Amino acid sequence: MNKSNPTGGNGNRPVPVLMIPLRRCGSHALRLRLNFNPQFYSPYPLHIVDFMPLLPLYGDLEDDHAYFRLVSDVVGLQAVSMVKWPGVVFDPVEIFEAIRHAPRSVHRIVWELLLRSGEARGARIVMDKSLDSVHYADELMRLMPDMRFLNVVRDPRAQIASMNKAIIHDFDTLLNARTWVEAHRAADLLLERYPERAMTIRYEDFLEDQEATLRKICGFFGIDYLPQMLDVSRSAEAKQIAQMSALWSSNCFAPIPANIDKYKAQLSVDEIGIIETLTARYMRRYGYELATDAAVDIDTSAFDVARRLSDERKHEAWRTLEATNFRDYVLRRQRAEYLASVRARMEALRAARQAAGVADRQRLDELVTPFEVTD
Fold it and tell me: d(Cα 41, Cα 16) in Å, to the nearest integer?
């Protein structure tokens, strides 16, 4: 495996890997097992996609003031993550000074945190499980030409049935099917442009033969396969997150191949028809047998109706989560409230800057000694 530095700093750094293209594909199951190998590290993801709507509020990132604020806010996002990264605390000043002369991007900041975390553990490979970042793959490749991609495919009927129950997604089959297709279209572009940098696996193949799939992934990463990867019950993180959220409750147990067809009891025939209509091309490509003629007539107005219903269901889901798993509820709300507070602050700051006519591209002096806060 090429250990060249992908980020423009000094010395060798871990090789960056992004898992793609969409959550609820079995991604935690793979991440937790691969983390048994000290050559590999993948912490709980930041899911920077949730931060992207705020990015325009920062303005020109060549302005040191704007970029330092962004660095500080991304470090803050990591600090309010539901699952903490063990053994690391990031200093926004140190991060800013380390990357101030590199191409500026929110993704560069995220990856500085990831790579530093991996370096601290002696890892050769660092993987981000923020699968939605597939939509920013071109920028990631410009920033880190050595990046690799693990494309994890799952039967869309099973994946969408899982998405329908997850508060991180919509509560509607039609909307989630559209999201599924958009993610795989983005992955298609990536696989076409960088075929040598990507590996595709099917989650169902992992369920049928964990060892063969994990050996294949390890070979692609250039790391050792370890037999202990098969016993996820020994993973402390798997036990931790299984207690934190119903979305992760199965991650501390071996996968059950019989659950491959669980979606048949979770989706109606009409819902299966909608999914197959939108995803038929991908289902055929990846070897999933269609159960309908995949010819449902979907009017564009159906998406507006679906959005209203989904928003109502999501509101109720938050109430249910508060009543049934208060820890999960508080941790998710804390992150959502942090993002809302960043938006409010940046909107107020932008208005004040515009009113005052503050010049763009302000500069901060470079530090020659460590920055210290004094009373």
Answer: 10
How far apart CA 295 and CA 229 sit, in angstroms, is: 42
Give residues with Cβ within 8 angstroms of 370, minimum separation 6.
none
pLDDT value, residue 9: 39
d(CA 288, CA 280): 9
Contact 164, 265 (CB under 8 A): no
Write down the architecture of domain 15-269+299-356 according to CATH.
3-Layer(aba) Sandwich (3.40)
DSSP state of 206: H
Mean pLDDT, the chain, as a whole number? 90
Rounded to two decimals, the pTM is 0.88
Q: Which residues pair with 152 in a beta bridge?
A: 201
Using H for helix, E for strand and C for coil, what is the string for 225-293?
Answer: CCHHHHCHHHCHHHHHHHHHCHHHCCCCCCCCHHHHHHHHHCCCHHHHHHHHHHHHHHHHHHCCCCCCC
Side-by-side strand order, sheet with 198-202: 40-41, 125-128, 15-20, 148-153, 198-202
List the domain boundaries for the chain: 15-269+299-356
**Residue 277, CB half-sphere, CA atoms under 13 Å: how many?**
14
